[in-house]
């Protein structure tokens, strides 16, 4: 275990800071000026459809922004001193473990988009699903509507997407085929990160507002559905003939997971009991949280016993993949550090070096 500062005044220059660790790589990094949020839209205006932000090219891929250097250092030092025995990793899947853009500049698939674009289901389903994506994703990332409005829209999106899937006649056998066809790419460094966590027996909670069956199948095909990994997400329910008949949450009278209710405290009691049986009831646990949305910072809510904001028991790393200029200020207020412009896991693995 090694401790010490990873943060500098504006950004972490890891080539120099990690030289003593024997790490033979360098994360390119540059200072990122503070910028305000976009102005609010007038009442009743629709947010613009999602499209690439040309200003993103001004930000180096993988640049690291330390949001509050003193707090970052304090949390890293606390977690490093606690060691791997007390560390728990809570991580989002879509666009956190996976890239937002592929090597050709096309947007990568989310779990839902794996089925939306698979071509295995009726054209009527694909048309509905893609229309929902076009309508609701810009609302999810918009700075022009309130959190309460976003919450309502995300519930609508997930519920309508699930209904469309049920109506499509999806069969269980479609899932591995759709996953093989999908434009899903793990970030460089993710396989190594997961394997190191398994070797150190560090529990991992993959917490996703996507579809558990898609996520698990993808990790299975990558040989990364490891023994220390627990997935909490939206689970499909199939009948005896393998036909999709519903989703677990709705059948249990619960709201489906979406980007703004993805919280440990919202997890069903049986899942919490299972996690405690696997993780142990550790009153000294520390959390490394990894996400890409504003809602992801709440994934661990209710997980750390007697948690206070100033006890430095959680380090939050955010991937700000696109529309960086408009969203940087709000992301800096929520995360401990940011990896910009769809960067890789070099910085995350460097943090793990400090703990192991």
Describe this structure in words.
Helix 4 packs antiparallel against helix 5 (147-168). The longest helix is centred in the middle third of the chain and has 22 residues, at 147-168. The chain has helices at 14-17, 69-82, 111-116, 123-141, 147-168, 174-181, 190-199, 212-221, 248-251, 269-279, 324-332, 346-355, and strands at 64-66, 87-91, 204-211, 229-234, 236-238, 244-247, 286-291, 314-320, 337-340. Strands 1-9-8-7-2-3-4 form a seven-stranded mixed sheet, sandwiched between helices. It is globular. Strand 5 and strand 6 (244-247) form a beta hairpin. With 356 residues, it is α/β, with parallel strands linked by helices. The chain has two domains: 14-33 and 48-99 and 186-355, HAD superfamily/HAD-like (Rossmann fold, 3-Layer(aba) Sandwich); 111-181, DNA polymerase, domain 1 (Orthogonal Bundle). It comes from Mucochytrium quahogii. This is 5'-nucleotidase. InterPro entries: HAD-like_sf, HAD_sf, Pyrimidine_nucleotidase_eu.
């Amino acid at each position: 275990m090694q401790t010490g500062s990873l943060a500098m005044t504006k950004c972490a220059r890891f080539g120099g800071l990690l030289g003593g660790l024997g790490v033979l790589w360098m994360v390119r990094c540059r200072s990122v000026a503070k910028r305000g949020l976009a102005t609010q839209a007038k009442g009743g205006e629709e947010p613009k459809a999602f499209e690439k932000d040309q200003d993103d090219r001004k930000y180096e891929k993988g640049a690291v922004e330390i949001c509050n250097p003193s707090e970052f250092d304090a949390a890293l030092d606390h977690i490093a001193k606690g060691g791997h025995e007390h560390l728990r990793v809570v991580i989002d899947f879509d666009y956190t473990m996976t890239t937002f853009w592929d090597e050709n500049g096309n947007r990568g698939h989310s779990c839902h988009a794996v089925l939306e674009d698979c071509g295995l289901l009726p054209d009527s389903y694909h048309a509905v699903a893609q229309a929902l994506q076009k309508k609701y994703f810009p609302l999810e990332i918009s700075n022009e509507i309130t959190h309460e409005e976003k919450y309502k829209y995300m519930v609508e999106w997930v519920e309508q997407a699930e209904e469309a899937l049920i109506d499509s006649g999806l069969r269980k056998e479609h899932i591995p085929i759709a996953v093989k066809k999908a434009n899903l790419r793990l970030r460089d460094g993710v396989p190594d990160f997961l394997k190191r966590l398994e070797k150190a027996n560090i529990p991992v909670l993959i917490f996703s507002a996507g579809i558990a069956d898609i996520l698990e199948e993808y990790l299975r095909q990558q040989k990364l559905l490891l023994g220390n990994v627990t997935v909490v997400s939206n689970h499909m329910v199939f009948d005896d003939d393998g036909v999709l008949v519903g989703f677990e949450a709705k059948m249990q009278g619960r709201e489906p997971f979406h980007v703004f209710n993805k919280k440990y405290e919202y997890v069903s009691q049986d899942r919490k009991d299972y996690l405690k049986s696997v993780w142990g009831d550790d009153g000294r646990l520390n959390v490394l949280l990894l996400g890409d949305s504003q809602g992801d910072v709440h994934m661990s809510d209710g997980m750390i016993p007697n948690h206070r904001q100033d006890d430095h028991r959680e380090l939050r790393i955010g991937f700000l993949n696109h529309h960086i200029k408009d969203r940087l200020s709000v992301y800096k207020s929520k995360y401990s550090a940011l990896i910009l412009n769809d960067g890789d896991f070099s910085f995350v693995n460097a943090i793990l070096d400090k703990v192991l």
